[in-house]
Please model this.
Amino acid sequence: MPPSPRQTLESRIADGTAVVGVLALGYVGLPLVRAFWSAGLRCLGFDTDPAKVEALNRGENYLKHLGGDFAVQMAASPRFEATTDLERLAEADAIVVCVPTPLGPHHEPDLSFVRQTARDIGRRLRPGQLVVLESTTYPGTTRDVMLPALLAAAREQAPQTRPPQPVLGEDLLVAYSPEREDPGRPGSSTQTIPKLVGGLDEASGAAAVALYRHAIAQVIPVSSAEVAEAAKILENVYRAVNIALVNELKVILTRMDIDVWEVIDAAATKPFGFQAFYPGPGLGGHCIPIDPFYLTWKARELGETTQFIELAGQVNTKMPAWVVQRTMLALNQRGKAVNGSRVLVLGLAYKPDVGDVRESPSFELIGQLQTLGAEVDFHDPHTPVVPPTRKYKQLEGKRSVPLDPETLRGYDAVVIATHHTSYDWPLIVSHAPLVVDTRGVTRTVTGDKAHVVMA
Model:
């Protein structure tokens, strides 16, 4: 008796001949391709952006924090190819989905990318494929959203090419494995960050675990896709709530003329029962500002409330406005209205030393200051030009200005939004007429700091 589609897939995964397709080659997908390719597997990278596909096939890497050598090596290898041709999904034994899961205009989950990708895969589905979702979402998405879209699209194939309805766990294996990328974090990579994996059934989970063990040092199976989905939400809710706590403390302690950063450092000397989180101008990145709202939306669907999580979201969302207010008051004290003032925002990325601007609070700072009539520029060594964004279309194409003493002196206020390590804080403090520090980085600068305002 010939092997079943599932047995064929399991055999290919076991002996390393499985072809891995990764859909969406961004901050999650590209490092994952690199990990599987480095482990010796053949990889197909899919993206709708021809520029990304062409760059990778030329050996050019557009995510600078990953380094450039791997892109050159992959492009020269017969085991990698990037493509926009979704017909080639049928070539892949395992398909990993890394598409965005943003919020809609009313903070509702936008799963349109997941649904569309599932339909794209389903229309080309063949027996014996594993599909894994990595995009962050609420518990139940893999089973209740992605799987039905896969099966519905498979049924829509032309009768002459349509295979029998796939049977989960036999013809089609489906799992969830949350991404845990942290761009720019020293000493960590896709290969070294522990990986959670949960299947829609036992066979799916086992196949996905076996696949990831080729590329990831520690793979941790959990009992279901829902557990893996919920764990990812918990990780990011935990961070969002604790960041909201220190952001709220920053507002209160600033009014009491107490340095919140010194308070946190002092509390962090306790060797147990405390983990340090630090305030900032708001939340950024593709996970922490978004994921808690996925859970609150799901809770409302079940008739439950998430007051604690929603309160944290409100605190973090208000932080850019608080920074703008502090800037406005500081300008007023120097006899300047924010209307007509020239303001320089340092850092467009949401975190230091990367060019990742997704959900960055710097956009909100710039937008609010412009609404008040300020002329606003930015400097970011990792983001020379504002890329296309879903929300801030008016800023697309705006260029980073030079950062030197003459430039600094030409602005009425300089707002430190991102603490890139390349910034020379003494130089900035020495030459900027007014510094608004949202990261506490000027605390170690010596000399006259009467013009430095903590925010």
In short: The mean pLDDT is 93.
